[in-house]
């Protein structure tokens, strides 16, 4: 309920007015012909088109649609984190995520910013689900549709391919052929409009795969080096989705991230961490090639690692005070307040 309130409260006035980027994106979704011509980010454009046709042409309505995707992002994060953390740790990590300035600034806008990190979480969840042997045919169809929709989001396709090739390879014996025989054709059917659009406009391929139009190796190296600066020291100068030059993470989250890296290092044998590493490496490369516009790629990974930091702190606290419920609860309360 807290996330719902934070996402949907006063959408028409916070942030005030309508940004130029919002106007451009909403306009690109106002006609079906425009979406057919450029179907990238269609999962958000199609609901916007529906709002336009219904005459619900208010910025609050458009932002609410993006907010719904933000809530789905929170649910996916909780579901994924719960696969390998305790319920307490998962809840605390999820609270840290949806109360973060990054989440609020990228969800309360009528733009496609939240689709990129949401797609990453969907790919990670799908990789785990495909490995499980109890998937039904109906679930495989739904999974194929959802995965097909994620490929409409720019630069997600390379990560999709890497997870399909390397994320499932060691568990290939567990991925039943009958599930892949449903998932793969379903994905291809969903992708038909995108395939037709790329035939008409081959330049879309660059956006789909994050292929740069020029060779700038020095600039690419600088973009990788600036990632930790954006996270811990000075954020990107992007008034629409960042407050001044404040770092993306606050001090407490930064400490948890560092502790999380330390904790995760000793658990690298866990299968899901291999998937996380694949996504992290791919994200660094894509950020280097495409700049801060795709910086949100690494944010799901950042908070997945933060969850490890939360788990480490709680483990240490409960080790020091194993039989004192009062002190235990004080520690959890301080963690939430921080």
Describe the structure.
The chain has 338 residues and is an all-alpha fold. Helices cover 70% and strands 0% of the residues. It has 18 helices and no strands. It has helices at 2-8, 20-28, 32-37, 42-54, 59-82, 87-98, 101-107, 115-131, 137-150, 156-167, 177-190, 192-200, 204-209, 217-232, 251-265, 271-290, 299-320, 325-337. Helix 1 runs antiparallel to helix 5 and helix 5 runs antiparallel to helix 6. The chain is globular and about 65 Å long. It starts with a helix and ends with a helix. The model has no long low-confidence stretch (mean pLDDT 88).
Keywords:
mainly alpha
Shape annotation = globular
Termini separation comes to: 20 Å
Radius of gyration: 20 Å
Number of helices: 18
Oligomer: single chain
Q: How are the elements arranged and paired?
A:
Blueprint: H1 2-8, H2 20-28, H3 32-37, H4 42-54, H5 59-82, H6 87-98, H7 101-107, H8 115-131, H9 137-150, H10 156-167, H11 177-190, H12 192-200, H13 204-209, H14 217-232, H15 251-265, H16 271-290, H17 299-320, H18 325-337
Helix pairs in contact: 1-5, 4-5, 5-6, 5-8, 6-17, 8-9, 8-10, 8-16, 9-11, 10-16, 14-16, 15-17, 17-18
